[in-house]
Design goal:
Order of helices and strands: EEEHHEHHHEEEHHHHEHHEEHEE
CATH class of the largest domain: Alpha Beta
Radius of gyration: 19 Å
Number of strands: 12
Helix content: 25-40%
Strand content: 25-35%
Largest sheet: 8 strands, mixed
Shape: globular
Number of domains: 2
Structural class: alpha+beta
Bound molecules: cytidine-5'-monophosphate
Length: about 325
């Protein structure tokens, strides 16, 4: 029986702009997504019976069909029944390090790792773009998680244009364990409050999506200029999440005044907040000072850094 071990990195949004509605009920987005080295570890083992089993060390993570990991394996089993019959089912263990329901694509990156791992377990030889297409049926962030690195994502979030990777920009990440933001709620509330300003014309949507390629943020990324990237951070969803979550606003304000912080922003639909720092020692200092200011054990703080890698295979047997 074969096994694979994979690393599944989290992401942050350096940029998230909501530009319009889509006929499928989703939003048309322009995002710049960045992998970070805070990651989960996923282990996959072939098993003789044609079933899917999921285990996780985190009490908040379900192991049934509601878990995106389960749904990723189920999708592969449905798409490739001959491989399932030949190689057997799969036993999946998720070692969680990425905070749950945080706007860090924790579930999506786990699902991406399962797609990559089952492709290897079953000798399918799928291309990255085939894996990304399968991933898009599971969730808008899954294709990016297969790809990893620094990427412009448009459409629903699944149309990807990779940028040169940004390595070793240090980040402090903060998330209250017990605070969760529902992504559907955040988008729905945004539509209710700001939907009247959405671009309607398809040509306007395409032009707005194309414009990001020549934006200040992309130039800052090409220049690998952490200070300039920090000045250009943007997330439209802050407009609905910050007023609803005073703790997130407080973190955002606390990060903004710390020495060594170049810029701060909420990631995705929140509630995690990140701060870009000038160096690793500065990031460690910022983490200490925020911990002193908020000694609440419910607050998780991490020092992490940007990485150019998506899903990585670290072992096989
Ligand atoms: O695709 P995913 O399942 O991650 O999306 C979660 C929810 O976020 C969707 O059900 C939708 O409410 C919202 N969403 C959206 N537009 C996007 C991506 C997500 O409205 N482009």
């Amino acid at each position: 029986m074969r096994s694979y071990s994979l690393i599944a990195p989290a992401k942050i949004n350096l940029y998230l702009e909501i530009i319009g509605d889509r006929s499928d009920g989703y939003h048309e987005l322009v995002m710049i997504l960045q992998s970070i080295d805070l990651a989960d570890q996923i282990e996959l083992h072939s098993i003789s019976d044609e079933t899917i089993r999921v285990h996780c060390n985190h009490p908040q993570v379900p192991t049934d069909k509601t878990n995106l990991v389960y749904r990723a394996a189920e999708l592969m089993a449905k798409k490739f029944p001959a491989a399932l019959a030949k190689y057997g089912g799969v036993d999946i263990t998720v070692h969680k390090h990425i905070p749950v329901a945080a706007g860090l694509a924790g579930g999506s990156t786990n699902a991406a790792a399962v797609l990559v791992g089952i492709d290897l377990l079953w000798n399918l030889g799928l291309t990255k773009s085939e894996l990304e297409e399968l991933g898009g049926t599971l969730g808008s962030d899954v294709p990016f998680c297969v790809e990893g690195g620094t990427v412009i994502a448009t459409g629903r979030g699944e149309q990807l244009s990779p940028l040169p990777s940004l390595d070793h920009i240090y980040i402090v990440l903060a998330k209250y364990r017990s605070l969760e933001v529902s992504t559907p709620w955040a988008y729905k509330t945004y539509r209710q409050q700001f939907g009247s300003g959405y671009l309607k014309d398809t040509n306007d949507l395409a032009a707005r999506a194309a414009a990001v390629h020549s934006s200040g943020m992309v130039k800052a990324i090409l220049d690998k200029d952490a200070a300039e990237i920090s000045q250009k951070l943007h997330n439209d969803l802050e407009r609905v999440v910050l007023p609803a979550c005073p703790q997130v606003l407080q973190l955002r304000e606390l990060f903004a005044v710390q020495e060594g912080v170049l810029g701060t922003m909420m990631s995705g639909s929140g509630p995690s907040v990140f701060a870009i720092c000038a160096s690793q020692p500065q990031a460690e200092q910022v983490k200490l000072r925020v911990r002193e200011a908020i000694p609440d054990e419910d607050l998780e703080l991490f020092v992490t850094c940007t990485t150019g890698q998506g899903i990585q295979v670290t072992g096989d047997r």
